[in-house]
Amino acid sequence: MGYCVFVHTTTSASVPTASEVIAHLPWKWRTQGAIFIIGGLGFMFDAWDVALNGFLIPLLSDYWSLTVGQAAWIATANLIGMALGAFIWGGIADVIGRKKAFTLTLLVFSIFTVAGAFAPAYGWFILFRFLAGFGLGGCIPVDYALVGEFTPSRRRGRVLTAMDGWWPIGASLCAFVSAYLLGFGDWRLIMLVMIVPALLTVAVRFGIPESPLYLASVGRYAEADAIIKRLVERTGADVREWTHEPVGGTAATPSSAEPKVRGQLRAASGQLVQLWQHSARTTLVAWSLFVSVLLVYYAALTWLPGILKKQGLADQAAFLVTGSMTAVGILGVIVSALIVERFGRKWVLGVSAIIAAVLLAGAAVFIEASGADLTWTAKAAIIGFGFVIQIAIPTLYTYVSELYPTRLRGSGFGWASAASRLATGIAPIVFGAFMWPVLGLTLTFVLTGALVVAAVLLMGFLARETTGEELS
Predict the structure, then answer these.
(1) What is the pLDDT of residue 269?
(2) Domain residue spans in the chain?
(3) pLDDT value at position 274?
(4) Which of 310, 286, 295, 306 is nearest to 445 (CA)?
(5) Any idea where the Major facilitator superfamily (MFS) profile domain is (predicted)?
(6) What pLDDT is stored for residue 391 in this prediction?
(7) Cα distances (Å, whole numbers) of residue 121 to 77, 124, 372, 429
(8) Rg of the chain over CA atoms, in angstroms?
(9) Are 276 and 412 in contact (CB under 8 A)?
(10) Is residue 17 classed as helix, strand or coil in its secondary structure?
């Protein structure tokens, strides 16, 4: 079978572009599906490490006799590291490629999470959590860019939404495995599990090619064509030729590459200006949605074990309730994947985000009215929140990843993620030292829910619907 591959800077009316070829390939589990699974496993361990913050807070509070404010730094250091990593790794992925960046993020967060298990003092532990967060922050935006750029357009909404199904799996495994391991050791043991993500880099190395859309966007057309040819062969598509066109802006060429470190940092910082120049409305909506929706989710994930322990539950019991909240989120992701194409990104995201905020405020009311034995209404509100928020979050990730063109997709998602990480990184200190003690649990969650409503209104008026669009 021969291929006549044309590489042009203009689009022929009869010859499809490379992006159109990829967008219309048949979905095959052994091809795009394998990329989805490997990327999903990275996302699962990402969730595991983030959820670990909530379980470490009550354990280390006892181990090092920490105040609520000191304990908050366990989550804050990790999340601030994620904010820094999200903006840096998103830009790096747009320079060195999705595959290399994904591999490096996995290694960094795995190594420093394990290092935290051997921290000799609280200060060292906080440093290692920050560095683990730095690697972790780049995993999600790079992962979504990589998987999305291999997925046919008619399935992209469901596939990217289903990607978030790995999050409740990882968070739930963290809760249940941690509760189990506490019967054999202390907090150090539950951190050593995170050596496993380092092994996933082998699967990335041999199971995922570089994104051909990325390669074409930086002028590496021959490499892009070779990968597209393999994709066509493996999926059985009837395609013989295609053409290339510039993907917005001036593509970098291999011969114009700057020294690597300086070029990567310059690209990472320069993307911020490009994002706002590309569309200030889009970037405002993306940031506000990420900040508000993820602030509500991380507030629950980070503090629920500590809140329940303060109510009188034992560590393992608090972990299991939190694990139930995250586990039911798997069903939420399935529902999201089933309805996101039918009803559209904006409607699904807006309705589910507001309902989740209401349920969390309701859960706070019932928790404050309960003792060590949680009432069924408190448990129902907690579990309901876990279900609905996982309809909203995967839709959010899918929506924002589609709002930007290929040249800005990694950095666009990365900067929105960075904004949310910064907000959620500061939130544990504000929550633990001021809002919860002074305002009470219910009012604290009502105020965070109000931010969600404001962000949804901005989306409704300023942002376009992306359902059915081809990636540009």
Answers:
(1) 58
(2) 18-462
(3) 76
(4) 295
(5) 35-467
(6) 92
(7) 15, 6, 32, 20
(8) 22
(9) no
(10) strand
Structural tokens at position 196: 């496993």
CB of 242 closer than 8 Å to CB of 20: yes
Return the closest-CA partner of residue 32 out of 139, 145, 147: 147
Report the alpha-carbon distance of residue 89 to residue 368 in Å, rounded: 40
Look at residues 320, 382, 22 and name the one whose alpha carbon lies nearest to residue 174.
320
pLDDT of 260 > 50? The answer is no
Is the alpha carbon torsion for 256, 262, 265, 270 positive or negative? negative
CA contacts within 13 A on the Cβ side of 157: 24
Instruction: Answer yes or no: are the C-beta atoms of 306 and 436 closer than 8 Å.
Output: no
Tell me the percentage of the chain whose pLDDT exceeds 90. Answer: 18
Model-level pTM? 0.74
Domain 18-462: assigned CATH number = 1.20.1250.20
| Residue 379 burial class via C-beta count within 10 angstroms: exposed 0-12, middle 13-18, buried 19 and up | middle
Model confidence at 24, pLDDT cuts 50, 70, 90, reads: confident
Average of per-residue pLDDT values in the chain = 82
- Phi, psi of 120, deg, nearest 5: -80, -15
The beta strands (E) that lie in 56-196 are given as none
Which segments of 354-430 are extended strands (E)?
Answer: none
Distance from C-alpha of 135 to C-alpha of 235, rounded to nearest angstrom:
33
Average pLDDT of the residues in 367-379 = 77
Please check the confidence at residue 421 and state whether its pLDDT lies above 60. yes
Distance CA 105, CA 121 (A): 25
**CB distance 161 to 337 below 8 Å:** yes
